[in-house]
C-alpha cells in the first residue's frame, strides 16, 4: 500500500456539509478498491480540495472518486512524508 | 489560528533526507512567525511537495518558507477539513 495526495480544482464555495457528503461517498465505496481516504482539506475561496489516502494505486483512488461523482484532477503518490 | 496547505512544484528527485532537512529548517524558524508546520508529503516523481500548517496568515507561512530557502508556489487556507 502506498500513500496518495489527490487534488480537486474548481470546488469554489464548497460548504462543510458538501465536503462531508463527498468524503462519506468515498468512504462508502473505498473498500471495494482497497483504498482508505484518511483526510480531506478544502479551501472554498480558491476551490482547491486535497485528499490524503492509502491505496494500491492512483488508478484505484480515481476509481473511487469517479464512482462517488467527483473525479480528481491530480493524483500524486507521496512516498515521502514527515 | 487557521490551517493552511501549501504546495511546492519542481522538487523532482527530492530525497527523504532533503525533505527532512527542509522540514527541520521550517521548524527551526516557525516560532518567530507563530506558525507550526504539522506535516509534509512529497512526490519525488512529479516534484510536488505539500505542507500542512497552522498559522496566523498565508503570509506568515510564506515568510518561514522563504527564510528557510524554499518559497511555496501556492498557499491555500483550508478552513474545512474532515
Please provide a written account of the structure.
The structure is a homodimer of 82-residue chains. Chain A is of the alpha+beta class. Chain A has one domain: Alpha-Beta Plaits. Chain A has 2 helices and 5 strands, in the order βαββαββ. Chain A has a 4-stranded antiparallel sheet with strand order 2-3-1-4, covered by helices on one side. The longest helix of chain A is centred in the first third of the chain and has 14 residues. The model of chain A has no long low-confidence stretch (mean pLDDT 98). At the A-B interface, α1, β2, β3, β4 and β5 of A face α1, β2, β3, β4 and β5 of B. β5 of chain A pairs antiparallel with β2 of chain B.
In short:
The structure is a homodimer. Chain A is built from 2 helices and 5 strands; from the N terminus they run βαββαββ.
User: Largest beta sheet of chain A, briefly?
Assistant: 4 strands, antiparallel
Percent strand of chain A equals 35-45%
Catalogue the unreliable spans of chain A: none
Order of helices and strands of chain A: EHEEHEE
Give the helix/strand class of chain A.
alpha+beta
The number of helical runs of chain A is 2
**Multimer state:** homodimer
Q: Globular, elongated, flat, extended or rod-shaped: what is the shape of chain A?
A: globular
CATH class of chain A: Alpha Beta
**Most extensive interface, chain pair and sizes:** A-B, 27 and 27 residues
Name the CATH homologous superfamily of chain A. Answer: ORF SCO4226, nickel-binding ferredoxin-like monomer
